[in-house]
Design goal:
globular, 6 helices, mainly alpha, DinB/YfiT-like
Length: about 150
């Protein structure tokens, strides 16, 4: 499983993000490309310990049991539900969101596992830094595939 903490893997993500354009269309889902970038950036904020969405009751009940879907080799399901606080519905500016996300990926990778949040994921609960690293990669991969890159 690829991990965003491995420089080669974070560079892969940055290169794929650079292949997006304001005209990139989703193969599934409701977000446009700028909203998707903002969504991924908001997810980065959680892993970096800058945002602390509350745990929902469903996550408290089953999150620990299903959390391997975040860091195993199976692709995430299309149209999977998301954390309500990072669901982006308002208009966003493509270049701004693209650069924000790229900088967060670089910072997260540079900071390394030791600076990863210890705060629980809002659905899956407590994650190790390795699980966060794999989960960030998998989440980005899912959304970049959504837009064909």
């Amino acid at each position: 499983m690829k991990n965003i903490f491995i420089q080669l893997h974070s560079e892969e993500m940055l290169n794929r993000i650079d292949k997006l354009s304001p005209n990139s269309k989703p193969q599934w889902g409701k977000m446009d490309v700028a909203q998707m970038l903002a969504h991924c950036s908001a997810f980065q904020d959680i892993a970096m310990g800058h945002s602390f969405p509350p745990r929902g009751w469903l996550g408290i009940l089953i999150g620990n049991f299903v959390k391997p879907i975040l860091y195993n080799d199976k692709p995430l399901a299309k149209n999977m539900s998301t954390i309500p606080t990072i669901l982006i519905e308002d208009a966003k500016e493509f270049e701004t969101e693209k650069e924000k996300l790229k900088q967060k990926i670089i910072t997260f990778q540079d900071n390394g596992p030791k600076k990863c949040t210890t705060h629980p994921h809002p659905f899956f609960g407590k994650l190790t830094s390795e699980q966060w690293g794999k989960g960030i990669y998998k989440h980005l991969d899912h959304h970049l595939k959504q837009f064909g890159v």
